[in-house]
């Protein structure tokens, strides 16, 4: 039975995994869970800077499930297209999951490395950032960006909660 990540609220600032999960199992579970659940996911999101938005995330396995692409778009009625992102989730050379992210908000393709299940660490850039990914139940997906504009710890800035629709 697959293990799923459980996301705590941004107030508590962290991620829990179900008690029995080991890191190796969690790595396999996240990649396997996403690779086995391809499709279009739709839902809503909200963020401190973006405000409420509609999220559309396409998940597709590639290279026989050794990687997953995550194509994420956020739109709002008032602001139109708010965010476009193409991300590849794969296991890196050191055995940890990595997100390779391309979007207009970053300086090129940026690598985020998982430092605890579902939490992809800050990169060496102009401000601390991380991405939190969760699959709280089959057919559901949570994708959240955390960052800080200064030396403070990153905090959740926007979060999409989506369900598979196609």
Description:
This protein is mainly β and 166 residues long. 8% of the residues lie in helices and 52% in strands. It contains 1 helix and 12 strands, in the order ββαββββββββββ. It has one helix at residues 23-35, and strands spanning 5-7, 15-17, 39-47, 53-62, 67-76, 80-91, 97-103, 110-116, 119-120, 129-134, 140-147, 155-164. A 10-stranded antiparallel barrel has the order 3-4-5-6-7-8-9-10-11-12. A two-stranded antiparallel ribbon has the order 1-2. It is globular, with a radius of gyration of 15 Å.
Question: Which fold does the CATH topology refer to?
Answer: Lipocalin
Rounded Rg: 15 Å
Question: How many E-type strands?
Answer: 12
Number of helices: 1
Strand order of the largest sheet: 3-4-5-6-7-8-9-10-11-12
Can you give me a brief rundown of this structure?
With 166 residues, the protein is mainly beta. The chain has one helix at residues 23-35, and strands at 5-7, 15-17, 39-47, 53-62, 67-76, 80-91, 97-103, 110-116, 119-120, 129-134, 140-147, 155-164.
Which helices and strands appear, and what pairs or packs with what?
Blueprint: E1 5-7, E2 15-17, H1 23-35, E3 39-47, E4 53-62, E5 67-76, E6 80-91, E7 97-103, E8 110-116, E9 119-120, E10 129-134, E11 140-147, E12 155-164
Antiparallel strand pairs: 1-2, 3-4, 3-12, 4-5, 5-6, 6-7, 7-8, 8-9, 9-10, 10-11, 11-12
């Amino acid at each position: 039975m697959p293990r799923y990540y459980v996301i705590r609220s941004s107030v508590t600032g962290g991620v829990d995994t179900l008690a029995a999960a080991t890191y190796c199992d969690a790595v396999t579970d996240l990649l396997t869970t996403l690779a086995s659940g391809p499709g279009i996911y739709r839902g809503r999101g909200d963020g401190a800077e973006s405000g409420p938005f509609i999220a559309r995330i396409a998940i597709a396995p590639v290279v026989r499930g050794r990687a997953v692409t995550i194509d994420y778009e956020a739109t709002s009625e008032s602001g139109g297209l708010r965010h476009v992102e193409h991300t590849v989730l794969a296991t890196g050379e050191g055995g940890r999951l990595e997100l390779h992210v391309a979007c207009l908000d970053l300086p090129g393709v940026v690598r985020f490395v998982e430092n605890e299940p579902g939490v992809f660490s800050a990169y060496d850039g102009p401000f601390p950032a991380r991405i939190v990914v969760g699959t709280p139940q089959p057919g559901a997906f949570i994708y959240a960006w955390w960052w800080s504009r200064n030396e403070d710890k990153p905090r959740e800035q926007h979060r999409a909660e989506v369900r598979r629709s196609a």
